[in-house]
């Protein structure tokens, strides 16, 4: 396996970004109002809907549109949550954190706000603060499975894998076979170098209703790290339009190139084709 010669610390750096993708999926999945009904767009621009299916230019336009709504009323809870979410998806983590800090000042006890704040703290590298914030959002009498999974993602980044997996199991007890939690659990095993177990969890996650391209992107990475690049490419292209597929492949190439694996895997595939 390609992963064998990678030191655990380097593996952690290689995969931490993928785990954050999963964590973002979990926390952004908290999009329910205080009454547990689906959020209505209200003052949120229509651009805030279906962000996961957007291309990079579409996300940029959505960020501008939602940003204008945020500027009109920075205390608006739902607009602030949507704005931070799209900022994270476009890589503007520092700005997303600043937005959530302002929203949290206006809504200091709102569980979803605290969860989103914790996510932006984690993306900004403030892991201990993120863990504290997410735990503050959790309540023993009304536990939230999304918060357990988000907590697990932060614990994984802190190197506390046993605690992280315990949180994922707690989340799965409440929400069996949730693809985002299974994806997080799979990536937890990537961090410890157990690619076979990771692939098992990620394949299960990818087969669940509601699994999106981020879950398949994680699976593609794990398959690619094991030297099966053709299969990884097929997974990365699955159910995506050409632009999104290329973006996924660019991401996959970027991750694999960090350990100088891309050329090795491509050469291996070419050799296999000629042999067959």
UniProtKB/TrEMBL annotation:
A Pfam family per the record: TPR_16
Keywords, ordered alphabetically: TPR repeat
DNA damage listed as a keyword: no
Domain of life: Bacteria
InterPro entries named among the record's database cross-references: TMTC_O-mannosyl-trnsfr, TPR-like_helical_dom_sf, TPR_rpt, UCP035836
Record keyword Transmembrane helix present: no
SUPFAM superfamilies linked to this entry: TPR-like (SSF48452)
Positions annotated as TPR repeat: 145-178
Protein name: Tetratricopeptide repeat protein
Species of origin: Peteryoungia desertarenae
């Amino acid at each position: 396996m390609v992963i064998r010669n990678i030191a655990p610390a380097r593996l952690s750096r290689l995969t931490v970004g993928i785990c954050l993708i999963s964590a973002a999926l979990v926390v952004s999945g908290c999009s329910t109002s205080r009454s547990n009904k689906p959020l209505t767009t209200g003052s949120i621009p229509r651009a805030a809907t279906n962000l996961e299916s957007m291309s990079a230019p579409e996300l940029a336009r959505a960020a501008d549109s939602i940003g204008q709504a945020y500027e009109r009323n920075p205390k608006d809870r739902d607009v602030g949550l949507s704005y931070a979410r799209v900022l994270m998806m476009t890589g503007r983590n520092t700005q997303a954190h600043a937005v959530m800090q302002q929203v949290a000042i206006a809504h200091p006890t709102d569980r979803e706000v605290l969860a989103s704040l914790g996510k932006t703290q984690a993306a900004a590298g403030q892991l201990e603060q993120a863990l504290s914030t997410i735990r503050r959002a959790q309540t023993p009498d009304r536990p939230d499975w999304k918060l357990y999974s988000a907590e697990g993602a932060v614990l994984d980044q802190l190197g506390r894998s046993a605690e992280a997996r315990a949180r994922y199991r707690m989340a799965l007890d409440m929400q069996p076979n949730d693809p985002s939690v299974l994806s997080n659990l799979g990536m937890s095993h990537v961090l410890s170098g157990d690619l076979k177990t990771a692939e098992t969890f990620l394949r299960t996650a990818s087969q669940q209703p509601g699994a999106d391209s981020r879950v398949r992107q994680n699976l593609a990475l794990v398959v690619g790290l094991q030297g099966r690049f053709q299969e990884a490419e097929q997974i990365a292209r699955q159910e995506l339009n050409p632009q999104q597929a290329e973006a996924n492949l660019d991401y996959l190439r970027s991750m694999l190139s960090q350990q100088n694996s891309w050329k090795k895997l491509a050469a291996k595939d070419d050799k296999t084709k000629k042999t067959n």
